[in-house]
Design brief:
This protein is mostly helical. It has 4 helices and no strands. The longest helix is centred in the C-terminal third of the chain and has 24 residues. It starts with 15 loop residues before the first helix and ends with a helix.
Length: about 100
């Protein structure tokens, strides 16, 4: 019995083996800055928003008190209850702006 040829022809008339060995070279006409998924400005806005959020949490933190002390002026100060949440919300607004800018 004769062996069947394993090199089956494709639609273009080439064998599968020959077609799989071909390599396709792509040339890029885009600048090297395009290696980022989004533009550089997008990442700058995102980092600025993240920095504002982190700053808000830092403003909210702190307050070294002894276990037997209660200083309501320090706990409920404007910095912690007013300013810090506003800075966090501002950071979230910057993040949303960065996402929807494009």
């Amino acid at each position: 019995m004769a062996k069947k040829s394993q090199n089956k022809k494709t639609d273009s008339g080439e064998s599968k083996e020959t077609a799989s060995k071909k390599t396709v070279k792509y040339t890029s006409s885009v600048s090297s800055d395009s290696s980022l998924l989004y533009g550089r400005e997008f990442y700058i806005w995102m980092l600025a928003g993240l920095a504002l959020i982190i700053l808000g949490f830092v403003l909210m933190a702190g307050g070294n008190q002894a276990p037997n002390e209660w200083n309501s002026d320090e706990i409920y100060s404007f910095r912690r209850t007013g300013l810090a949440p506003l800075v966090i919300v501002a950071g979230l607004v910057v993040e949303i702006y960065a996402i929807f800018k494009k």
